[in-house]
Write a structure and sequence with these properties.
GO terms for molecular function: 3-dehydroquinate dehydratase activity. The chain has about 140 residues and is of the alpha/beta class. It has helices spanning about 20, 25-35, 50-60, 75-85, 125-135, and strands at about 1-5, 40-45, 65, 90-95, 115-120. Strand 3, helix 4 and strand 4 (about 90-95) form a beta-alpha-beta unit. Helix 3 (about 50-60) packs parallel to helix 4 (about 75-85).
Length: about 140
């Protein structure tokens, strides 16, 4: 099974940026903890909207875990890219976006994702990975 994790803007700063919200581990440190036998996980991070869209279009995976960061609330183009591909996408956010500033309460991506996981910290990625493993069975 091939899973692609796509992280959007500022997620390259995990472990440094607002540790009270996002934790104190880098994504590289965390991803090694959730490796599963028989699953190839690749990670892509970009601060550039168009690069995220190109990665969604070009993906060769059985499932995508997408944390679009701030683009979640603003990017019709990323929403359209998710809707245009046949690969199932699970939307993940480290923080509970519904408990934060009001401008973060609406996700443009949620309606076109197969599911959404918010507010469980980095564990959200593992929960999404578990979903894809169960889907495969």
């Amino acid at each position: 099974m091939r899973i692609l994790i796509i992280n959007g803007p500022n997620l390259n700063l995990l472990g440094k940026r607002q540790p009270s919200i996002y934790g104190d581990k880098s994504f590289d440190e965390y991803i090694h903890e959730i490796q599963k036998e028989g699953v190839h996980v690749s990670v892509y991070q970009s601060n550039v909207e168009g690069e995220i869209i190109n990665t969604l279009h070009d993906a060769k995976a059985d499932g995508i875990i997408l944390n679009a960061g701030g683009y979640t609330h603003t990017s019709v183009a990323i929403r359209d890219a998710v809707a245009a591909i046949e690969i199932p996408v699970v939307e993940v956010h480290i923080s509970n976006i519904s408990a934060r500033e009001s401008f973060r309460h609406e996700s443009l991506i949620s309606p076109v994702a197969v599911g959404c996981i918010f507010g469980f910290g980095m564990t959200g990625y593992e929960l999404a990975l578990d979903y894809f493993l169960k889907l495969k069975k």
